[in-house]
Each structure stands twice: as structure tokens, then as C-alpha cells.
Amino acid sequence: MREKFGIVFLRKRLNTDYIDLYQIHWPPKDIPFGEVAQTMKKLQEQGKIRHIGISNFGIQNMQEWFNQGGTAVSNQIGYNLLFRSPEYEIVPFCRENNIGVLVYMPLMQGLLAGCWSSVEEIPLLRRRTRHFSKNRPGTRHGEEGCERLTIETVQAIHALSQHLEIPMATLSLSWLKWQKGVSSIIVGCRSKAQMENNIEALLKPLDPEVLSLLNEITYPLKRYMGKNADMWENEKNARIQ
Ligand SMILES: NC(=O)c1ccc[n+]([C@@H]2O[C@H](COP(=O)([O-])OP(=O)(O)OC[C@H]3O[C@@H](n4cnc5c(N)ncnc54)[C@H](OP(=O)(O)O)[C@@H]3O)[C@@H](O)[C@H]2O)c1
Question: How far, in Å, is the centroid of ligand 1 from the Cα of 45?
Fold first, then answer.
């Protein structure tokens, strides 16, 4: 029954008989890891999927996944200049174990594209992470957040991007691309122009001095956000363990 996991839609919607990379979106809560791992392995043996990926797995989750017979070529996680929590544990673990870090939300949903200069301007659905106060509608982390530090950090990155005459989105994506362990980046694009700019950003080299400056500028926010790699939940309720 579990073999159905979306496979039936493949032929109809994607016109293909197999999936290149099939990812477990979040660590399974209701189904034992071993059962999921076995199903994935079977799908792979049947040729329905080529590679197995995981997403939002912390180091405990990954250890359990491997102990239960799971494999993974990649771990898809949220990682960007404003959210460097994965650097504490997840990225080093992935590097040591030869698991590609596949990044989501590389532009922090547009915050790193220079679109907004105050929290009030940010669309509601994009201000639910731990950066924002628990008083913002839609948040569930119950924390104070660090809105001032977040906006100050955005402004500092913006100032550097203006000084270098490099668009902020380009600078942010280039920084990410040069982080060790990052193998792929999924960027959300609203238009053809955004996509073209983003592809160009990923092809360009970045001066190591600029990389260090960006690390320095974003370090206070990295320290504030800490090791919890769940952008939306406090440490106690974090789904990424
Ligand atoms: N595995 C998971 O749990 C998980 C969670 C979240 C997301 N994801 C994946 O990650 C993907 C990317 O995340 P995301 O789209 O939420 O965030 P994102 O890639 O950080 O931000 C995308 C937004 O940035 C703006 N943007 C992109 N390129 C730009 C450019 N060149 N100039 C100016 N603005 C630019 C656009 O904002 P405007 O719309 O304002 O123009 C766009 O909608 C998603 O499609 C999804 O597949 C996975």
C-alpha cells in the first residue's frame, strides 16, 4: 500500500516512469523509520526511483535512519545567510557522511532579495519563522524572536551589495553556493527574469574576502538562532532532531 506514495501520479503528470530523487519530506512520525526505509529500498530496486533523499533530518534523525537500514544521497534543509543553524551540526555530519546538502529557502523567502526593509512590509506567510516575534500571526514557536537583529542584518547585507554593485539576491546565492557541503540549491522564482538572474548568480565566482565579510555580518544572527535547525518551532518542539 505504501508503494503508492505518489508513484501513480508520475506517469500521468510528469510523463515519466521513474523519479531521479525521491525525498522524505520530514522525519516520519507515525510510520517506523525501518518500514519507510524498506519501502524506499524496494522502490529503488524496482527502478521506480533512482536515488533516495531525506529532508529536515537532524543528526539524531539521520543516525536513526541509517541504523534502521535507510540510505540517503542528500538532505534537504533550510539554509541561508539569515539562517545558519545547520552549520553547527547538520552540515558537518552530512559532509562526513557524504550526504549532499540540498538547500531550500536560500533567499529566506525573498527577505534576502532586498524586497522589504521593515517587518510590517513582509507578507504574513513569510513572517512565521523564529526570526519573528511570537506576537506575529501564524507563528507557533512562542519565542521572542529577533526582529531588530534580523532587519539590521538584512540592511547590512544590502549595504554591502550596494557597495559591490551586486544585487542582494545574487550575493546571497553566491555565498550559499560556496559553503562547503552544499551540493544543490532550490530557489523559488516568480518570473523568468528572477530565474535568469539566479542562474547567473550561481555561475559567478565570489571573492573570498566578500565571503568572510558576509560571515561576519551574519554571525550575531547565527549565534542568536543557535543550533535548532527548525525554522518554525522552538527547541523543545523542534521536528528536526
Ligand atoms: N523541504 C521543505 O520542508 C521545504 C520548506 C520550504 C521550501 N521548500 C522548497 O524550497 C523552495 C524555495 O523556497 P521558497 O520559494 O519558499 O523561498 P526562497 O527560494 O528563499 O525565496 C523565493 C522568493 O524570493 C524572491 N526572489 C527569487 N529570486 C529573486 C531575484 N532574482 N530577485 C528578487 N527576488 C527574488 C521571490 O519573491 P517574490 O515572490 O516576492 O517575487 C521568490 O518567491 C520551494 O519552492 C520548495 O520547493 C522546501
Answer: 33
Q: Report the alpha-carbon distance of residue 4 to residue 80 in Å, rounded.
A: 34
Distance between Cα 120 and ligand 1 center (Å):
19
Q: Pick from 5, 14, 76, 75: which is nearest to 40 by CA? A: 5
pLDDT of 196 over the 70 cut:
yes
Other Cβ atoms within 10 Å of 49 Cβ, number: 22
Please give the grid coordinates belonging to residue 109: 523567502
> Per-residue pLDDT tens for 97-155?
999 999 999 999 999 998 788 899 999 999 999 999 999 999 999 999 999 999 999 99
- Dist. CA 172–CA 201, nearest whole Å: 9
Which residues partner with 185 through β-bridges? 103
Which of helix, strand or coil describes residue 145?
coil
223-122-161 Cα angle (round to 5) = 60
Distance separating alpha carbons of residues 135 and 224, to the nearest angstrom: 19
The rounded Å distance from CA 104 to ligand 1 centre is 8
* Ligand 1 pocket test target in 126, 170, 187 with most atoms within 8 Å of CB: 187
State the amino acid at position 2 in one-letter form: R
**pLDDT tens for residues 34-80?**
999 999 999 999 999 999 999 999 999 999 999 999 999 999 999 99
Pocket test for ligand 1, best of 24, 81, 161, 194 (most atoms within 8 A of CB): 194
Please, what's the b/e burial string for 14-34 (b: 16 or more CB within 10 A of its CB; e: otherwise)?
eeeeebeebbbeebeeeeebe
CA of 124 to the centre of ligand 1 (A): 15
